Amino acid sequence: MATIVNTTEEEPMLAVVRSTAELAWADGGAEVADPEVARLCAEAQQHVLAGRWLDMATLMLASADLLLLAPRLSDKDLECTLTVICNLVTKAGSEDEALEIAKLICAKLTHQPGEKPTLRIKVLFSLYNLLPSLSGKALVYRKALELAAAGKAAADCVVPTFKNIDAFVAYWGIGKPEQRDLFLAVTRILKDQKGMTKEYFKFLNKYLPTFDGSADDADAIGAAKEEAAAAIIEFVKSSDLYQCDLLDMPAVAQLEKDEKYQPVYELLKIFLTQRLESYLAFQTANSTLLQGYGLVHEECITKMRLMSLLDLSGHCSGEIPYSAITKALEINDDEVEYWIVKAISSKILDCKVDQLNQLVIVSRHTARVFGMPQWQSLRSKLGVWRGNIANAINTIQANKVTEDGGQGMQGLMIR
């Protein structure tokens, strides 16, 4: 015959209080431990009956450090215990109380982050899902990123969530300072992840634009110098990036007058606005600097030749003579077509080669910088295309009217 046992929702919480109390007083002997355990359980019972959930959280978390460091407690049991504590946010009488409880839990879990960081992150994700407050969710996620910095295994838990960052930011409705802190935390995690160079550069390009050069950013923008320089180096290193907006960012522009990073800014200007000749002169004067940033001279020459070809394409009227290419890229005549093919395969140039007349006929090229002048040029082209389409429509309509009129006249003559 089945036995029916009367249970309540509060029992898991009281069981957690009892087990942690027993663990805390394990070395005190039964005479000392039993009264203390009974006292804590009674106090917990009072908090439950009175609905004092913040006080209950404080009580339950008091011995949480012992749980996290207890060698006899399995990770599964520890996770279950901490999840019971997290569940307190669902019992809070208001979002503000739930947020205060969440802050207490986060503070405890981010203390001594080197101990079981992966498990702590899992618990924080459980807390995230339980919280009703959007600002609370943003806080918990940010704390998970802090733990992710503890090591590769911990980072692996959060990296898959980075693809949803834009959706998170929109969902949470957080302001620019909070977004800035979030993006910076992500970049610092990705910086040490192998095979994630593109993602690292992507988030640097999310972080740096949060500085708009306003008076409000005057004190904070100086802290972005290291990330601004890192973004430049990643762009120069990349073999498949030939366009960026870094020059237009105030966080990057400040490097032009910085004693330490001014050469790095100059290098960016060369790659985005000048040709191979300028790079070679820069390299001669700054070879040690380039090596210090892990830049390989031969790879830089390869990229700079392609950049120079793009510059030629942007300044020509659709046709580039072989002679102009050999001069700009500092190559022989028989190498021109090799570099044209390389540009096409890199998807930065669409063109046809007229070998007879030694011309490259360009139909499309990637703009190294796409700022206001490029937008204005695009607007002008769209205006011309719109006018051409309107003229074509008018011509078609006029021809149709003429044709319809002619058919009508033929009908009258038949009658």
Q: Summarize this, please?
A:
The protein has 415 residues and is mainly alpha-helical.
What does the secondary structure layout of this molecule look like, with pairings?
Elements (H helix, E strand, L loop, with lengths): L10 H14 L5 H21 L2 H9 L2 H6 L5 H12 L8 H15 L7 H14 L3 H15 L3 H7 L6 H8 L3 H15 L6 H11 L17 H13 L12 H4 L8 H12 L2 H17 L4 H19 L3 E3 H8 L6 H10 L3 E6 L4 E7 L6 H43 L1
Antiparallel strand pairs: 1-3, 2-3
Keywords: Cytoplasm, Initiation factor, Protein biosynthesis
Protein name: Eukaryotic translation initiation factor 3 subunit M
InterPro entries: COPS7/eIF3m, eIF3m, eIF3m_C_helix, PCI_dom, WH_DNA-bd_sf
Structure description:
This protein is mostly helical and 415 residues long. The chain has a domain at 1-27 and 40-91. Helices cover 66% and strands 4% of the residues. It has 20 helices and three strands. It has a three-stranded antiparallel sheet with strand order 1-3-2. Residues 1-9 have low confidence and may be disordered.
Element-by-element helix/strand order: HHHHHHHHHHHHHHHHHEHHEEH
Q: What structural class do helix, strand and pairing data support?
A: mainly alpha
Helix content: 55-70%
Overall, the morphology is elongated
| Strand order in space, largest sheet | 1-3-2
Helix count equals 20
Q: Strand share of the residues? A: under 5%
Uncertain ranges: 1-9
What is the terminal-to-terminal distance? 104 Å
**Rounded radius of gyration (Å):** 33 Å
Mean pLDDT: 87
Largest beta-sheet characterization: 3 strands, antiparallel
Protein name: Eukaryotic translation initiation factor 3 subunit M
Main location: cytoplasm
Domain PCI: 199-367
Subcellular location: Cytoplasm
